[in-house]
Amino acid sequence: NIAMAAQITDAHRRFLQVLMSHGIMEGSEARKLHRRCCEIHKVYYAHDKLDDFISAINSHLQPLFMQIRKGMSEDDGRAHYALVNLAETEVTKMASDYTENELELFRKTMDLIILSENGFASSTDILNLADQLKTKKMKKKEAEQVLKVFVEDKWLSERNGEYTLHSRCIIEMEQYILSNYQDAARKCNICHSLAIQSQVCESCGIGMHLPCVRKYFRAQIEPRCPQCNDFWSCDIP
Question: What start-end ranges are recorded for coiled-coil regions in this protein (predicted)?
Fold first, then answer.
């Protein structure tokens, strides 16, 4: 580890700074950034060594309880990289950015999304919670504004009035979600990371991300569950 720790350069530092300012970065963007940082600081660049480059940064972040983690977008299966605070894995890490009732609205939105069938919650259902908050009730207009901020800050994603957890939120809060929603949260049977938007086998109950479903069944004539081998009754995306 000490040998690893010695290998950090200004290229690594620049990469970390840019990632920190973004919060999360898509894989292709991270690869471009890796190259640019190496070129700017005249450091040897190997196009297939991004994960090693990130490991070197992570060895320095370890004492600070921080880590750059790789995750997957549930929409298209693309890799993403996010900087994660390991010391506070809970929603409390958001406490410095939001008021108590905003945090309560986020928690309740999270409940709706995770306990839903498809990993989405409608804006109507979320806004109906605004005047039921225990901390301090919110007007609907106010709640709409707060939801907008959650989307801008990459905690939620919105599509046609439906909300789901952003990739950043899933990467950062995976442990929190798995331990706080033990009955509802499941890991994808294929990639083994947390699956919010997923299809579930009607026979044995395993879940799979939609991009993983697409990839797994691509080569199969008749889709069968990888766990129990029963016919996969969901529509293949």
Answer: none
